[in-house]
Design goal:
This protein is mainly alpha-helical. It has a single domain, classed as Sufe protein. Chain: A (Alpha-Beta Complex). The protein contains 6 helices and 2 strands; from the N terminus they run ααββαααα. The protein has a two-stranded antiparallel ribbon with strand order 1-2. Strand 1 and strand 2 form a beta hairpin. Helix 1 packs across helix 3, helix 2 crosses helix 3 and helix 3 packs parallel to helix 6. The chain is globular, with a radius of gyration of 15 Å. The chain starts with a helix and ends with a helix.
């Protein structure tokens, strides 16, 4: 599935629910379905700066594609990062760097987050793109 196909799927899922309390519950349910990180991955170097809650994000490259894992101690943050992972997982660094994540505004996520959670969302996106840039640079250097 392409990044845009996944974004459109999310937009469709969220458009079926009008009430934002129900949409928050969707996010919480998404996060609750996520596998917890092993204790050894919950280290300072994997913490996202700019998030009010604690959020650990790990990125691994397999056969030219990036795979993210994350965990947060806040339910909604865990849901948001799970949503981002569902869009970006299994794609190349170039695909991640060259995509516009339009689903965030289309589902109204940004406008329904507190300023601190909105900053956290931007920090998550920035870190995921930084991982993509690092892997792109690393693979260019090895060629």
């Amino acid at each position: 599935m392409t990044i845009d196909e996944r974004q459109n799927e999310i937009i469709e899922d969220f458009s079926e629910v009008d009430d934002w309390m129900d949409r928050y519950q969707m996010l919480i349910d998404l996060g609750n379905g996520q596998q917890p990180l092993p204790a050894e991955d919950k280290k300072e170097s994997n913490l996202i700066e700019g998030c009010q809650s604690r959020l650990w994000l790990i990125c691994e490259e397999k056969e030219g594609k990036l795979f993210f894992r994350a965990e947060s101690d806040a339910l909604i943050v865990k849901g948001i990062v799970t949503l981002l992972i569902s869009v970006l997982n299994g794609h190349t660094a170039d695909e991640i760097l060259n995509t516009e994540l339009y689903f965030i505004d289309k589902i109204g996520l940004r406008e329904h987050l507190s300023p601190t959670r909105s900053n956290g969302l931007l920090a998550m996106l920035k870190q995921m793109r930084m991982y993509a840039l690092a892997y792109k640079t690393k693979s260019a250097d090895s060629n």
